[in-house]
Amino acid sequence: MSQSRPLRAATRGSALALWQTRHVADLLGYPIEEVVVSTVGDRRTDVPIHSMGGKGVFVKEVQAAVLDGRADFAVHSGKDLPAVTPDELVVAAIPARADARDALVGALWDSLAPGARVATGSVRRRAQMAWHRPDLKFSELRGNIQTRLEKAAGFDAIVMAAAAIERMDIDAGVVDVLDPSIMVPQVAQGALMIECRADDVDTLAALAMIDDAPTRRVVDAERAFLSELGGDCDLPAGAYAVLIGDEIELVGMLSSLDGRVLIRERRISSEPEVLGRSVARFLLDDAGGTDLLADI
């Protein structure tokens, strides 16, 4: 598709965010202009993400660049995008998803020593590991991909998204990709979500060409789960959906912050929205999730 001017893409300035934005340009098949935006999550690497208000700390300023016309669209890591976003924006495309799973870096899960110290900035990862292994000790970990890898030597292991290691083509040494039976991924982890203004017909049409229908179905199911929990996720919660023929299988997880209580539910449906919300409602209403959230 030819453009009278390059489309402008709002993006964070990290190496991974820029890779993702350039990947979108490759999918579109023509150059785009990068509008690099600094977010509060990027600036405040000394503060745990959950204490700053959760996922929105990495997207609000990027969305603002689209809303005020500095950019035509925004490229987000799906796991950073809250389920509730501004009405003026729409998710125009979700390209084919990379590996959604989490990865342990520095050690194999089955060989972690008793009392091993694991670093992660995610309450979801910490809670699930603690549920499986109450003996583990945890440390906070923030920063970009390279910074976290440089800090890895100070711990027995760190946890990262497998997609980040894959996309950056990093030799991270010992990497153990964790099965969802051990670690339910974050909602939309491994997926890119591209937002534009709802009334920008030309940009919507351009981005529609790189939308991957199977990925959108599973991500929509996961995000419906998140929406039913409250729209953001600074909680120890996760969801992972896969296609089985024409149906979607989704497992949802919610736990206490310390991982002592963890509840999961797995269901299958052909309707993404119905599936995600039904799993969340079961966890909240029938499995004790409302009490967990009240304690948090």
**H/E element string?**
EHEHHEEEEHEHEHEEHHEEEHH
CATH second-level architecture of the largest domain: 3-Layer(aba) Sandwich
Q: Strand order of the main beta sheet, please?
A: 2-1-3-10-4
From the alpha carbons, calculate the radius of gyration and give it in angstroms. Answer: 19 Å
Alpha-beta content class: alpha/beta
**Number of helix segments?**
10
State the major sheet.
5 strands, mixed
Tell me, what is the CATH class of the largest domain? Alpha Beta
Q: Remind me, CATH topology of the largest domain?
A: D-Maltodextrin-Binding Protein, domain 2
User: What gap, in angstroms, lies between the N and C termini?
Assistant: 49 Å
Please sum up the structure shown.
By secondary structure, this protein is of the alpha/beta class.
Topology:
Layout: E1 7-12, H1 15-28, E2 32-37, H2 40-43, H3 60-67, E3 73-77, E4 89-93, E5 102-105, E6 117-119, H4 123-132, E7 137-139, H5 145-151, E8 157-161, H6 162-167, E9 175-177, E10 192-197, H7 201-208, H8 213-229, E11 237-244, E12 247-255, E13 262-269, H9 272-285, H10 289-295
Parallel strand pairs: 1-2, 1-3, 6-7, 6-8
Antiparallel strand pairs: 3-10, 4-10, 5-8, 5-9, 11-12, 12-13
Q: How would you characterize this protein structure?
A:
The chain is built from ten helices and 13 strands. With 296 residues, the chain is of the alpha/beta class. The protein has three domains: 109 residues, D-Maltodextrin-Binding Protein, domain 2, CATH 3.40.190; 76 residues, D-Maltodextrin-Binding Protein, domain 2, CATH 3.40.190.10; 71 residues, Double Stranded RNA Binding Domain, CATH 3.30.160.40. The strands form three sheets. It has a five-stranded mixed β-sheet with strand order 2-1-3-10-4, sandwiched between helices. A hairpin with a 2-residue loop joins strand 11 and strand 12. Helix 8 packs parallel to helix 9. 44% of the residues are buried. The mean pLDDT is 91.
